[in-house]
Every structure is written in C-alpha cells, then in structure tokens.
Amino acid sequence: MSVSSRDVAGGYAHASDHHSVTLDEETFRALLTDCYDRLASVAADGETITEEVLAETLGFDDPGRLTPLLDAIAFIEAKAGRPPLTVLVVKRRTGKPGVEFFDTVERLGLDDGYRARTDDELLAMMATNVYAAWQR
Hints:
The structure is a single chain. By secondary structure, the protein is mainly alpha-helical. It has one domain (5-134). It has helices at residues 5-18, 25-44, 51-58, 67-79, 99-108, 119-134; strands at 49-50, 89-90. A two-stranded parallel sheet has the order 1-2. Helix 2 (25-44) packs across helix 6. The longest helix is centred in the N-terminal third of the chain and has 20 residues, at 25-44. The termini are close together.
C-alpha cells in the first residue's frame, strides 16, 4: 500500500487545521509521502522507529517537527479504516510514542473499539494490528 495524492492532500489539510505548519504545502506533501513510505516499511518489517531516526531520515534536526506529519498520517490511516502507523514512532528513552500520539488518538477516536485497560495495552494492541495490516 502506498499513500495516494488525494490522501496526502487530505492529510495536509488536516495537519494545517490542527497544527502550525511552517513548511510550504509542496514540501509538506513530499515529506508526508516520504514519512508514510518509511513507516509502511517499518511496519512491514515488524519494527519500530525512534523519533530521532525518523526525523534525521526526513532531514529534520528537531524530532518535534514530526508532529504535524505524524498527525496527518494518523488521520489518513483513520480515514482508510486502518490502525495508526504512527504507533510505531517511539521515544528513544521510553520505547513508546510521545504524548502527541495519545492526543491524536483521542482527538480522532482511534482508541474506539479497543478494550485496553492501560495505555500499554492499547499500544500493544494497535501495534499488533498495524503489523498485521502491513505484513508483506
């Protein structure tokens, strides 16, 4: 699966509505496509990726600049009825997604249908579903 230009446009619009996007639209769309493709590869390999490595891959010196891109990807996946690829982007120190991930999950209702009692259970369930959806 790859991301369509229509999905990228929707992701950009969503990110612009919820974040201060400082990149021009063309650059954001190109980075969104690159980020999506990288996360799809990570998912297909059954891995996770740290924010720092993903940021470096995209040419960012600050992992915080990933937030609008990751939010856009979560939005794209939610619209497609898939679990969020962004669950695979983790903090080096904790091995878990950052607080921004949980904010996005709550705002988009991505935790609906999961019967998790803890955040760790929710993360494990989502990651399992992501891997199942993206296995080659």
